Amino acid sequence: xxxxxxxxxxxxxxxxxxxxxxxxxxxxxxxxxxxxxxxxxxxxxxxxxxxxxxxxxxxxxxxxxxxxxxxxxxxxxxxxxxxxxxxxxxxxxxxxxxxxxxxxxxxxxxxxxxxxxxxxxxxxxxxxxxxxxxxxxxxxxxxxxxx
Length: 147
Fold this sequence. Notes:
By secondary structure, this protein is an alpha+beta fold.
């Protein structure tokens, strides 16, 4: 049974390891840990017992938030965990008075784009050459909701 919780220092090492597995330009363990002390940050983990099956992170300023990272461990993919993480983040942000969430996604990442569109995100822009390793444009997606 997967459950969502706020990230704690007990999750940092597993998240940093997942970063290395999932991204060509991963956050370091120190960078992930620093989010615990950032009052603008809200990170959630999807836990299977003590195992981090996935995570999502955001930073908010006022009533707007940016999704920093989202990843699901390869062994847990195709089970709806990414959907749960995004919906859980939106709910948690809404409780804090946030009414919009923006993110960047690789232009070639059709599965992620499809998920975000199913969850009500729309494309509001494009960042040329935003990603490196390999170099690629990012689509900027945004979701707004009423409180």
